[in-house]
Specification:
This protein is α+β, with helices and mostly antiparallel strands and 127 residues long. It contains 3 helices and 4 strands; from the N terminus they run H-H-E-E-E-E-H. The chain has a 4-stranded antiparallel β-sheet. The termini are close together.
Length: 127
Amino acid sequence: MSSPPLTSSGVFFVRESALIDASREKVWQVLLDLPSYGEWNPFTRKMYVVSESGSTVEDQTLEVGKLFVSAINMPPAGLTPPRMSGTSRVTTLDHDNFRVSWVAHDFPAWFFFLRTMDDAHRRGGED
């Protein structure tokens, strides 16, 4: 697996696929159920919708324009997994075509560097 291409704008596209024995509707439902992420996702341990001030809100339904926090647990190259959180804003939510996108606002710059280092480690040091 190669790292995302570097761009001057900091924008890149990542795609991964897996065969899941469930309907698209069921998978979509699980992906949009932010409070359940910690039950099935080892990378994103917790996700929740927040207000503009950063307070958790009662309604955890994703909508375009809403902010959400992702609590990340990413183990790089054999080190104790760093834990961090970042806030993102939903930019697309298309239920008919099963598409969601967002813009990350406050992940630290080293976040993507660690991911690159972990990928290189698994490939035996190749760049």
